[in-house]
## 1
Amino acid sequence: MTRLDDILEMLVSFDGISRKFVLPSIIDKLRMSSFRGDTPHSLGEDSAAIGTDSDELVLLTTDAIVEDLCLQHPSAAGFNAVLANIMDIYAAGGTPTSFAVALSYSNPEIGEAMLDGLIRGSHTFKIPIVRGHTNPNSTSTYVVGSATGTVQKSCILTAGGAEDDNILVVLFDRTGQRGEHYQLGWDSVTDRPSENVVKRLSVMNDIAEGNLVTASKDVSVAGIAGTAAMMLEYSGKGGTIDLDMIDRARPQQIKLEDWLRMYISLGFLVATREENFLKLKQIAEEHDLSACRIGSVDDTRVVKLSMGGEKRIMFDFTKGAVLTPRTGHD
């Protein structure tokens, strides 16, 4: 087997990606069976967009933190609950406005530490915590957050708008380190002043206002490769993820196999037209971020990995939904 074969096998069995395999059946059931389940810009997006009578949309998202992190590093779990939610809001081109949280625990010290992390996150990302629910006598330990935001109707970004011949670009902060509590995390937030963090995140507001991208997602626990595959499927497209490009762009202290799977704390994946790349790169640099090409979009509905002149199929969406179907199983 070649290194490309090894990477392919590693990615399709990676928990950050494989845990997503259940999503098509859940999304389909909600779309078909829940009240107004076909609401536009909702299931499958990083943030749902709710219409108003004004020029703005209200954004809504929710994320949970795995129990192991809550038990082992509860303060980090609380902080990351805020981070995960505000990333979804910025990925849609929006600005976070409020945060709500549900806490469950039996050990009061763990509960207090999760709360401390939430408070720290609220200051770092400048988002007020306005509502909560607490169960201090639970047999399970978790933190679930929800965030709201706003975005101008003319600036809303979708995760499913990638077009044929677009290029895929990752935006991230090179100043960072491997996560202290999660080894497959790229941490560009710890010990950073809030103003610096918000400056980097607001890159998505400027990109949205400039109408520079066709699709946008934050780089989640599925990593660069998994996030790209989700975007392509939700867009009804295929494409090529170029591992050589990613290898050249990665932080040198992180090996490629890890970088492909990393949750990037201030990282976004966008699809854009070739002619917009230089402007996109300029705006990223103004926000102290790097903009690196990592692949391309096509109409095959097949996701390929390329490396050293070779290609392998990662996912074939023509055979059925895998991660985030746009309109259910085709």
## 2
Amino acid sequence: MNVLARMRLGEGFSSGERALADVILASPDAFLSNGSKQLAARAHVSKSTVYRLCEKLGRSGLSELRVRVASELEAYRSESPAVDANFPVRAGQTSAEVIVGIEKDLAQTLAATANVLDPAGLDHAAELVRSASHVDILATAGNVAFAQNFRFQMAEIGRTVSAPVDEYEQRLLVASADESHVVILVSFGGRGFLSRPAARQLARRGVPLVLVASAEATPLDEFATVKLALSPHEDHARKVSPFGTGVSVLFVLDALFARCFVEDYDANLARRFAYYERIVDSGGCSGR
């Protein structure tokens, strides 16, 4: 995860660490030239708080944190604070203005998702998917389409994924999954009618759970084997539509599929092409 995005989320920070992170985020360029004494004075915290924050961010000291901030600052700034993720369009706008508003919203969402999606977490999730005897994905409402797309992508490389839509079938999936399965649960804020009971039951039985949810803390985090974070910028209810969340879910599931794909790239590509040729031969597609 981008270290500046991690500071913005501030999960597990003390009040002093939160104050220090806010000072860094307010002026990252100044941070790059500040020593620990200057930084502590600006945030009105102790020097020990500076080093505790470095440790919490996985850095051995201030110099290492500066290097990380410098390398990730441009990516962090690609998120525009001027874009309202909840209301990217307004009453009375023209078609041209709507197009620009949606474009800016989705561009920000892609940047934000890239900043919070942890490469190590993606590695872990892909390994769980590749090694499981059964792969299941649970989603509700607008996320169902993205779950079905992931199922389709995996089928094209010879991997069967269960993605039930019916509530009873979803509950049956949760009841029947065991340690040989991996379950991917898509729930932005962990508020779905099935999400928490399902996550709790799966965790209790030791079923690996890949949680695709907001980068902010959710009620499901404690049950996850690994979490793949979504852009947290949208409110769960007060918005025009989940424009950004949908794109963020698609980004994360595409990244998970692609990470699995590249582990056996040539074989997966050959398999996909062979399937397509067989479909063409059977008259199912018109070909090129």
## 3
Amino acid sequence: MDSVTYKPKQKRSEANLKKIVDAIMKLVEDKYFEQISIIDITTEAQLSTGAFYRRFKSKEAALPVIYEQFQIQLRDWLTEKSKEWQKMELSELVYDMTEGIFRFVDSKKGVFRTIYLNARLHSDLLQPQTLEQRINDFKFLASFYTRFIPEQTPHYEESVRFAIFTLVNNAIEKCVYPEITPASGCPQNFEESITATSEMLAAYLTNKLAQ
């Protein structure tokens, strides 16, 4: 009898967890995480507050699961884009990757904002592998440029990783915090920022290859 009743409970528990995570990820599209209450989350998820507290002791305790779900979405997107990036020449690759990352960040800016801030405020709540995953994502993006590296090109791999850092940082600042510095000091709009960033990075990488 126990085995018969346990399985539905487990399924319901997993379904409730998904509802909570989906609710938070939807709510942060329009509100700061700090402004969202447990009632907001349970109302959006159509669950009782008891169902929430059976999974998490606070909304901050849900952050590792939010990061995990975001990581899945990011890896799915990178996997899909990688099929195209493998076939591109340098200038096309730089522009397409720049545009893709800008648009991906813009589509997930609420989640990015939550991660960006709470990774600093609640670092004790993050899973140990989170930082390693971010580093691996940077390495994965940089790997598409390795085929352009002639033998014995000095420090080109480090230059590529710096270019990826600059790209991601520009996208986060422009998409997530466009109204405050440093993004507010940039005269380009969203579309112009994509073009300007890709042109800057293409020139930088081409120059490094020529050295």
